Amino acid sequence: MNITKLNFKKLLLFIPVFIVSCGGVPEETTSASTDKKAFSVAEVLTMVAHENEVTRTLYTKAIVGGGKKQGFKFDEAWQDEKVEAGPLPALFLRGIANDIRKGDVPLGLYLSSDFPISASNQLVGKQAELFKEIKETREPKHFYDEESKLYTAMFADVAGAPACVSCHNNHEKTTKTDWKLGDVMGATTWQYPADSLSYTEAMNVLKAYRDGTTAVYNDYLEEIKNFKESDKPEVGDKWPSSGKYLPAPEVFIDSVRKLSAYATMSSLMK
Ligand code: HEC
Prior knowledge:
The protein is an alpha/beta fold and 270 residues long.
């Protein structure tokens, strides 16, 4: 994580972002410096990518992995009326990306691979070239994409849960059947039109991502309400690891918040 490269002044600015994004303090940004371009686009995309990593791993392990053990189904056609299932992790991410696109924050988010299940996720051009290096080093790539005129950051998407590997290896449309835990399976690409962001703009990026997560998770719970044949898990403060339960949206987001706070703190203290 490049957050370690923040200088001291930026660090001071970063701490309130961190606290507010963790929900600890009401939004109060009276400092005169708040409208200055306090963050580079690379710093902000690194923060949101971090949050995304935590969200995706939590969703994959606790909801998909844990849920499957309880007999919950997850499917590509989860939004189909006849299909009684939740979103696959990649589609959860795509849902977040779609929700962000609907809002005012000009943040783009994509998931792709050199061996994709879905042909539309095939890495091409400059991104395919850079991905070769990402696979080797696992380090992110920050660059200006001349074609789209957008500042771009690509991060390794690692098989962080056994469910990633087993599902991809066994998928009928897979282009690779020997993925292993810990492999770089693809890249998460983020784009933003400016090279630096103010405090408020940085906050808005983080908030857009978190709102997107809540929106997709709510869509999933809405689908469940319409299940006719499958069991409906009880929604509340319990997780699938303890039975036919699903955490309520605020419980899920609260876990993301705690896990990403820890991760962000760790990278600040390195
Ligand atoms: C239950 C099945 C399932 C699980 C679990 C799963 N995926 Fe996928 N994944 C898919 C499907 C299906 C697609 C294609 C979705 C689409 O149409 O975009 C996909 C897409 C992707 C892509 C984009 C490239 C492609 O293959 O189309 C990446 C990268 C990816 N997944 C990585 C992961 C990682 C990392 C995990 C674990 C954190 C994971 N997946 C978990 C089924 C799964």
